[in-house]
Amino acid sequence: MKILIINGPNLNLIGKREPGLYGGRMLEEINRALREQAAQMTVEIDFIQSNHEGVLVDAVHKAEEAYDGAVLNAGAYTHTSIALRDAVLAIKKPVIEVHFTNPAARERFRHSSLLAGATVGSIAGFGAESYHLALCWFYRQNDNTVK
């Protein structure tokens, strides 16, 4: 099984950006821990991070072609990108929306996710653990859902 982890704008600054909110671990550290977890599950994972909406749309399209599914943290694009929503709806592979924080507990403009209706589910509020939980879902669904 192959899963693509897609990270959107400003997530390259995780660990430096508002550590009280997002934690102090750098994205590279989080990715390393995810690789270790994936190896134990015999799941292959790749990562992409971009601050550019079109690159993220292309990554979702790539998930259709080369992966069994994707974990998507679209950052602020969660609340604004119809293009990213349409990309998720256009592919036939499962996509899980993840967030470090719980958007519903933050500013009002973060309460709405344009991705929520397009993804198979959302995991939010557990910091970097949100990604680990998403990988566990893919692992457990492997025999039934991910083909």
Which fold name corresponds to the CATH topology? Rossmann fold
The level of helicity is 25-40%
By oligomeric state, this entry counts as: single chain
The sequence of SSEs as H and E is: EHHEHEHEEH
Strand composition percent: 15-25%
What is the count of helical runs? 5
The dominant shape is globular
Name the CATH superfamily assignment.
Answer: Dehydroquinase, class II
Strand order of the largest sheet: 2-1-3-4-5
Structural class: alpha/beta
Mean pLDDT: 91
Rg, Cα atoms, Å: 14 Å
CATH level-1 class? Alpha Beta
Major β-sheet profile: 5 strands, parallel
Number of self-contained structural domains: 1
Count the E strands.
5
CATH architecture level-2 label: 3-Layer(aba) Sandwich
User: Any low-confidence stretches, pLDDT <50, length ≥5?
Assistant: none
Q: Termini separation (Å)?
A: 9 Å
List keywords for this structure.
5 strands, single chain, alpha/beta, 147 residues, Rossmann fold, 37% helix
Description:
With 147 residues, the protein is of the alpha/beta class. The chain has one domain: Rossmann fold (3-Layer(aba) Sandwich), CATH 3.40.50. Helices cover 37% and strands 18% of the residues. The protein contains 5 helices and 5 strands, in the order βααβαβαββα. It has helices at residues 19-22, 27-40, 53-66, 82-90, 129-141; strands at residues 2-7, 44-49, 69-73, 95-99, 121-124. It has a 5-stranded parallel sheet with strand order 2-1-3-4-5, sandwiched between helices. α4 links the parallel β3 (69-73) and β4 (95-99). α3 (53-66) packs parallel to α4. The termini are close together. The mean pLDDT is 91.
